[in-house]
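Ticket #419: bound-state structure for flavin-adenine dinucleotide.
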Amino acid sequence: MKAVVIGAGVVGVTTAYYLAKSGHEVTVVEREPKVATLASAGNAGLIAPSHSFSWASPTAPMELLRSITIEDTALRINPFKAPGMAAWGLKFLRECNAGRSVKNTLVKLRLAQYSQRMLDEIAGAEKIDYHDIHAGLLYLYRDPKRMEAAVAKWELIRDHGQAQRILDPDGVAEVEPALAPVKHKLAGAIYGPTDSSGDSVKFTRDLQAVCERMGTRFVLGKSVTRLLAKGRRIGALATAAGEAIGGDVFVLSAGIHSPQIARTVGVRLPIAPAKGYSATFPVKSDGGVVPRVGAVDEELLVAWCRMGDRLRITSSAEFTGYETTYRESDFRIIRKLAETLLPDAAEYEHGSYRACNRPMTPGGPPILGTAGYDNLYINSGHGHMGFTMACGSSRIVADLINGVKTEIPVEGLTLTAHP
Ligand SMILES: Cc1cc2nc3c(=O)[nH]c(=O)nc-3n(C[C@H](O)[C@H](O)[C@H](O)COP(=O)(O)OP(=O)(O)OC[C@H]3O[C@@H](n4cnc5c(N)ncnc54)[C@H](O)[C@@H]3O)c2cc1C
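RESOLUTION: The complex was predicted; output attached.
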């Protein structure tokens, strides 16, 4: 079959890989001149099944309300900048009750565990070195009361097959010697020993090269403006340059822009942008104390990992519409993290900065499978865990297209599960 994939972030390129691998003639259409330039370029690089908790939780509405008046909350909303968010916001609130939150978390966990396995399998089979580090991830707490509450909360993940260790400050220093000088600032950590980290840009671009060797065509710098439907099928897509690209099957993996493209054939996708800030610094080459184990400061909600000779640090989730502007002050939480926990890790005066948008569904799990038309598939809405969940999601979508039984259930992942 002729398969057309829209969008070449980590999700689109892994989709192309599985489709090409199963013998299809694949074309990928991407608006930017290179693959992996939007969300896939700014993430913290954590492969973190342990962090599968749904953002829609019983405490989230209060956190968002506080953010309207208080500057430094991790989850933020600006109702003036995100005026079109009302319908999505109501759906998000509906997912915030305890029952839905647990259900969504477990759907994500199952997908994330499967996806990490698929990522390791691809990297092994295709010999892709993406600066991956398989040393677990640390989820750090500064306040003993919050740490105690977290131990109770994280039982859910542990009870569903995710390895976990509770560490005191000495234990943290043992796992990550770079944190030994600051261990007195910590109450402890939850350690996910099987979590990992890596560079999603390098992974995606190396996988693009593998796809090209299998015959996949990457049409770069072409924006898809709409889909062209004929009865119950999509016949082609149209680009801004006026071309039509036909195919037998279409996969929409355009991140936060998927809803806009789906709407051209009347399909509504509940995916909204959640902006994050991302800073990258060269690690100190001598005399530095550079971390090896990726981590999240659970109180500042700042995440980091080493990517070769660089340190990536990311922060914040702001519902402020589609824009990706930033000011120096938007990086204050990242600076605070660097000063307090990683003061000697990197050359902080030589940073590069960006903002990008996570494609969020209200409940958290992505949308996988057909939508509205027999040959239109969605692989979008991976939110804060798209690097973690990409390979598994793409394998599932390829299996659905091929009519093969998926290795894990698709329950909770289809469009009908995202009313
Ligand atoms: C600050 C931050 C930190 C994060 N940290 C982590 C982490 O540690 N671990 C993790 O697992 N995930 C993390 N994520 C989430 C992860 O990066 C995303 O979920 C993932 O990159 C989404 O991939 P994607 O391919 O769906 O989207 P994208 O990477 O945004 O790709 C979508 C592509 O579609 C293209 N496109 C859009 N519209 C069109 C069009 N009309 N025509 C053609 N092409 C189009 C875009 O140009 C883009 O290349 C983080 C995200 C952010 C923002």
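RESOLUTION NOTES: Residues 31 and 223 are 4 Å apart (CA to CA).
TICKET STATUS: resolved
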